[in-house]
Write a structure and sequence with these properties.
Elements: E1 18-22, E2 28-39, E3 42-51, E4 60-62, E5 70-71, H1 74-84
């Protein structure tokens, strides 16, 4: 019913998942998702830093950045980092 009614949201990750951000310093920072919010213009993932340094935002990231600057696996982040070089 929710899907048919347009009320279903598919989350890109779950709370507790690790996220990998490719930084402008050509390193990978690791974060842990602590909350996912549905906002007016999309999803926002709140996170805590686990390893590395904060590049874009200590608060979190728009879900639209997944696959661009933030990745769900270290392997995807390493491929993106390699492509930068």
């Amino acid at each position: 019913d929710a899907d048919k009614g347009g009320r279903l949201v598919v989350l890109p990750c779950k709370v507790g998942d690790r996220l990998y951000e490719v930084t402008g310093r050509k390193t990978i920072s690791v974060y842990k998702a602590k909350a996912i919010r549905v906002e007016l213009f999309g999803l926002f993932i709140e996170w805590d830093i686990v390893e590395g340094f904060v590049w874009q935002s200590l608060a979190g990231v728009s879900a639209g950045e997944i696959g661009k600057t933030v990745f769900l696996t270290r392997e995807e982040a390493e491929k993106a980092l390699e492509a930068m070089k």
